[in-house]
Here is the input.
Amino acid sequence: MKRMTKVLAVLCLSALVFILPMNAFAAAIQPADAAIYVTGEAEMGGNAKIQGDVIIAGGELESAGNIDGIVYQAKGAEINAGGAQVEKYDGELVEYKAPSFDTEPDDSLFEGRYTDGEKDFKIVKSPKRDGEFKDGYILSENVYVDSLVVEKGLTLNISAEKGELRVIRVETLVCAGNIRVVGEGSVVLYVDEVENSSHAAINKDGDPFALSIVFMSEIDLSIDTIYAEIYAAEEIKFTNTQVYGNIYAKDDAEFSGNSVVNGLVYAPGQEVEMSGNAIINGMVIAEDLDMTGNSQINKAETSIPGGTTEDTKPGNENEDNPGENSSGIVDAIKVVKYVVATDEYTSGRISYMKHTPNGHEDLVYDVLNEGSFVPTGEVVPEEVKADIQLIRDTTTDVFEMRKKEVSLFPFGRVDSNAYQYALTISPYVVPILNRERFNSDVNNWLVMGDRHGNVVEVYMIVA
Here is the structure.
């Protein structure tokens, strides 16, 4: 039970604290505002189309396609896109890190009949043999099986109650029916191989954040519908597959046929290739991008793990009170930003954004919006510097204390306002600061980490 508690903390932390780096600067566009952020070569041929702004952070853009937005050209990048509106990019050149996640679960998680990956588990119309179960069967234990089979038109329900984590490891997934997540908990499905079916549906119309699928080897996927967060350890190809959720790729990702992704495609250092009628409604972060045929990328709000965020930076005013944003907090709050790498403190103004944590759809609270930071150049008092160092040191100490529980995307973002809702870092940092007579309610703060346990930036509200 203790081990399960730790695994649950790891999974939930990945959902609560992972966020794309959007470090502060006073540029017209942030990386997260673009439809694509490419550090290498981007090529558009055929009738390929991008709806949204484009950031070419390095390399070259060769476009014979249609770009309905501004192409932002970083220093050293080359743009060859006739008819496109090109502007200089003065924003931050973010070095996005490859996604970090466990590619296989701990064998000690599996107890009972299915622990060694030697047996099959099948959902069939007429169960007759050991390992065969009827339509609608509810799986409520962790299992490690050779083949997980769901016949056409049938359904396997995987149950995880609130606060519970269900772990399923499958050598070969053979799904021609539907696999559904039931309950209010979380499910992680580890898959080594897939036998595709155009009739298959995985968690269709369910909560994508309730299911994480880790593909442990190279996968050529052709499944009708998937509602899940997808983690690809090796090259992954999608053909005629609809995905509702984010995709995190450690290797190249390819989309062809009538594939549609509604979410973020995060593949830093890798190539994203699109052909046929493939569509991505969200955002692409990659080293290289190759678009041909009628492929499209349409900028849309991406469901970053941890829930959705609503930007409330200056200018997005509340009709009832033009001096406040929709969170009820006055815009342009005074803040000090500290950058660890340069040991620099910068005074400025910042606003808040609304945040809804995953699994708490009825909960909304305010967090600092680092993307809205504007420097003002005021002198930073020594006592403020000391408080910021206290926040930094305390967060680092807590991470060290709990790092064994934080292996999946260790920490990317820690908000003082999240201490009542997060699981691993904030709930420990805030009480320690309180004992040091530091009031986190008055001096809201935000710590940005590099996912390796190192604090990168600290923002703290000042009076």
About this structure: Confidence is low (pLDDT under 50) at residues 1-27, 303-331, 405-410. The helical segments are 2-17, 382-402, 426-435. DSSP finds three helices and 38 strands in the chain. The two ends are 46 Å apart (CA to CA).
